[in-house]
Specification:
This protein is an alpha/beta fold and 311 residues long. It contains eleven helices and eleven strands. Strand 2 and strand 3 form a beta hairpin. Helix 2 packs parallel to helix 3 and helix 4 crosses helix 5. The two termini are 25 Å apart. Bound molecules: NADP nicotinamide-adenine-dinucleotide phosphate. NADP nicotinamide-adenine-dinucleotide phosphate (NAP) binds next to helix 10.
Amino acid sequence: MMNTNIDRKTGTISRRAVLKGGALVGTAFALGRVGWASANKQASIPNVRLGNGVMMPVLGFGTFTLKGDVCTESVADAITAGYRLIDTATVYQNEEAVGAGIKKGGIDRKSLFVTSKIWVDDSGYERAKKAFQTTLDQLQLEYLDLYLIHRPHGDVQGSWRAMEELNAAGKIKAIGVSNFDQAQLASLMAGAKTKPVINQLEINPFFQETGELQTVRAAGVQPQAWAPFAEGRNGVFKNPVLEQIGKKHGKTVAQVVLRWHHQRGVIAIPRSSNPEHRRENLAIFDFSLDAEDMGKISALNVHRSQFPEWT
Ligand SMILES: NC(=O)c1ccc[n+]([C@@H]2O[C@H](COP(=O)([O-])OP(=O)(O)OC[C@H]3O[C@@H](n4cnc5c(N)ncnc54)[C@H](OP(=O)(O)O)[C@@H]3O)[C@@H](O)[C@H]2O)c1
């Protein structure tokens, strides 16, 4: 399904064409066919119902750059703090440490939601199947909740066929993509037996991807934000507009940003190696941004990726 309503000011198409990756979206409160905030609480974090009926926490823990013991301890503590969604990827080279953290977290596997991603080197039917098994072995898990194609390079259709089979066999509960633009998403969907339920994209207050959010939702796909804080780039944690909104609500800039993602219907996966930050980032369900706040944050959009080196 092609989107005819793209926000060309975002520069999304040219960026994506070069990157061959990421697209996502979510404009305020319009949740399309995806069942945002549909009841069910897990810890204190609400779930969203994905297009295939699987429930997914609306806030999770990212693990990019976390390695070794720091990674294991961070994941274990995140679980203790209340996170249930843990996001990793083969290319992060930390699946073993994440798996150890999951074990150390010590809660029932069924109450966790674990995501990993297939890297471009492993694209294609046979390689994808092998890569998935390696991921499971590293994580010491029997199944994944979500498996994503990390970037739209290589034999995407072959990878997808393997993922469809693993999904049908119950080894993956939900399958999706990351960094797919609207054309890439449409092309995958056209030949797919099983539709992707997630598109994980760069989204932050400086790169809001409003048009992309609409496209993704129109396709029945749930948007998810990577680098929800833009990894701290562009002075996000010291931004005066975000500070002023935080002061108004008695909240930090990080909490304002995560609440903004939530109110746009976007799943965020902030990463932190700091236990206090991890807890701070969970405390976003006890306040709301009003229309004025949302408008001020909209005005921070510079329509440019904060990660030009990846495009
Ligand atoms: N699909 C993709 O292509 C893709 C690409 C990139 C990332 N991801 C995923 O998305 C996740 C999140 O993105 P990210 O890790 O790149 O960046 P991020 O979550 O936007 O930012 C992480 C940075 O924010 C800081 N931070 C976190 N909470 C804070 C708080 N409350 N106050 C102040 N600073 C805070 C962290 O520092 P401290 O450690 O000091 O708290 C860290 O430096 C990744 O970990 C990964 O799982 C996916």
